[in-house]
Amino acid sequence: MSSPPSQVAAGSGASVIRNVFLLAVCQALAQSGNVLIISTTALAAQTLEGRDFYWTTLPVTLQHLGVMLSVFPAAMMGQRAGRAVGFGLGAVGGMLGGALCSLAIWLGSFPLLCIGGLAMGFAVANMQLYRFAATELAPPHYRAKAISYVTSSGVVAGIIGPAIARLTPELLPQQFLATYMGLIVLHVLAFGVLRLIEFPAVKVEQGGGPQRSMAEIATQPVYLVAVIAAMVSFGVMSFLMTATPLAIVACGIDGREAPITIFWHVMGMFVPAFFTGHLINRFGVLNIMMLGIVTLVAATVVDLAGIDVWNFRLGLLLVGVGWNFLFVGATALVTTAYRPSERGKAQALNDFLVFGTTATSSLLAGILQQAWGWNALNYLALPLVGIALLALLWLRLRPGAAAI
């Protein structure tokens, strides 16, 4: 198993804490925009095209497609030009995406809303690399915690994003215009905070040996299982989360409940991150990932038990918790499977596959919710979770698994 990435020697304890904290602030701001989009966009599309429109989740799907198309250039840019340059351009992409979505609402154009979603993909692709950047800001013993702390900033996003989504739709004559203008502000603030972070200097990696081929990296059992787990965690989460606002309205519940339910979901995603790193260090990454799988199954049981407000809230809360344990664990696991000189392409392939899955699941979520209903979506989620379970069991049974 290869050593985890290490660009430069870690700085003092104070500088590590400062940089990880500032990166967490950036994550909170950018993630707030992401939560805002999830809470708002399907409903905004219905406002533009009508409630029976099948393609209401297409702008979100195109955002995920934008992520998938952007992860390789974003990761390689971060390796060659430095994280500050890459993440700064990502924030600019967020401003552009917010401006296009705002213009779409102003003009009443669903196609332009889709283009705005696609542009947001570049911003989100860079945001998803924050968790890897956290490992580069911290010494080896602190990396799982650094990932956890940066991820936990989503708690703030879970407050800010739904609050903007709930309070701004009617502020201007065009419904949702103020909401998407808020998206621009969030990325302007993120750009400012990024300038304060002391990212490691860009240098040529010499100590990691020759780079292996992509196929050699990707076929390692540890890398393969980590990527499968990340794909399932994000795919199932996106599948159920994207459909939830539509399911809430379809079940006769006021659409204003959607941001509240998304708030519960985001709390489930990110509150556990305050201690997920500690749990991984104490109990092992595979055990915590297994706990994530059990929690995702529990979420579908709650969803299938009824269509009351609290079924949606508790079910999506558990989806978030399951995502956290499985995804944070998968991120920690995948960083052990590549050399420093390989980090750009290894991280990019991971996120390309993860967000390809996410794009597909978000598109199918809207179509299948309209065609088959909420219960069918939850039944379909179970086999996907089963794939992650089988992958983890396979890795556990391999020689040397006890050391993971």
Report on the architecture of this protein.
The chain is mostly helical. The chain has one domain: Up-down Bundle (Growth Hormone, Chain: A), CATH 1.20.1250. It is 77% helix and 0% strand. The protein contains 16 helices and no strands. It has helices at residues 13-49, 58-80, 83-107, 110-128, 130-137, 143-152, 154-167, 177-194, 214-218, 221-250, 257-270, 273-283, 285-304, 309-334, 343-371, 374-396. Helix 6 (143-152) packs antiparallel against helix 12 and helix 12 packs across helix 14. The protein starts with 12 loop residues before the first helix and ends in an 8-residue tail after the last helix. 58% of the residues are buried. Residues 1-10 have low confidence and may be disordered.
